[in-house]
Amino acid sequence: MTAPSTPPTAPSGGRRPSGMLAVLLIGQFMVNVDTAIVNVAAPSLKDGLHPSAGALELVISGYTLAYAVLLIAGARLGDARGHRRMFLAGLAAFTAASLACGLAPATGALVAARVAQGAAGALMIPQVLSGIQLHFTGRARERAQGLFAVALSGGAVAGQVLGGVLVTADVLGLGWRPIFLVNVPVGLVLLAAGARLLPADAVSRERTRLDLGGVALLAGAVLLAVVPLLFGREAGWPPWTWFSLAASAPALAAFARRQRRVAARGGTPLLNLSVLVRPVVAWTLGALGAATGTYYAMLFVLALHVQDGLGRSALFSGLVLVSWVAAFGISGPLLPRMPARVVAFGPVAGYLLLAAAYVTIGLAHADGAALVVLLGLGGFGLGLGFAPQLGRLTAGVPARYAPDLSGLINTNFQLAGAAGLAVFGSLYLGVPGGHRHAFTIVMVAFAGTALVACAAAALGGRAAARAADQGSSPARRAAVTASSRV
To answer: What's the CA gap between 77 and 119, in Å, rounded?
Structure first.
């Protein structure tokens, strides 16, 4: 892939853009599958390795921890060392770590391999959005971002479904191990395809040094926030969880101070803070975080409600979400074919539809076909909001900031998912009156959060329109206005 200072162009060397995009999105899909697949296999893991409760939680959450902590560093490494090189290196490490997970003889080895798997994903995934922003423009970028949204959403659901199928099938009597081993042949094929289809990195005359101090400070801040969010609910929210959450704010402030000092000295900060202070970026990230936070929490709450409340199977609880992913996937390719004014209004309309779907599901206690239809409406609403906002972000930020934006977007998703699961999961498990009542309360809370996302999306659109009015060139003004008028 090209250097960050190069404007977006088509892939060089005769490589087909569709092939490059397929490689990037399959990599994104693989990493998202492994975020969710272990949840379904937890009972089989218990029977096979006999881990303690804490060790089993680390098998599930160690991946997410390493992934969330290192995403911004992975984005900066792609900028400094080459996006193609870092994607392929991350993919090779992810494939090797998956093999280590599948062959792990004991719980400790599995935990270590899962952490390595998450770290490899953090190296690989930031290059996906960077590649889309650097190599696609106009309608092609909108289409690529729509497909990226499908890979992001579909991977989590596919992980649940695939995990249930593989564990139930007990392939070759291996129990839980095929959920990891399946990545090996896919990873090897993708490595070969990536080596052929990804454009070569531009030769850089300067070798940018990675801000290791910034990496340490940011990793500490993210850990202080994510660890209590991942483990606090099951631990009953002891005092250390609140101390940790409170300590994350000063740690983040220390990181911001260091980034300003590095930039003032003429160095390359880990994260260019000028991106984050742009109103369009701040409001849009807030809207995306609120909306996607409800989605990841819904995966947990709906699984408990369907299985414990409605008495359905684990496989049904995964399959019922196929309508959500399918409708989400329809909205991505559909939006680029619509007028710019309709696309611009998409986030507001989509999040209103998402809120309506949540309320209806909660109040009607839908089951069977009705639940499938309502989940489809919710997925379509989230898709209407998601894809245009990615376009708004990339249109409002120059291509040289692609690594900063990619790291911020991916980290935002992880933090929003962890926070949504902690808050709404605790609410569902803590509300008295049984599954039915708790499900209604949480779905209404989801709807309220979707309305917050709607308001933030509207404010982000206004900020983008103001930025367009103050822009320095007619081309930039048209690009931003088309993606943000609300």
So the answer is: 13
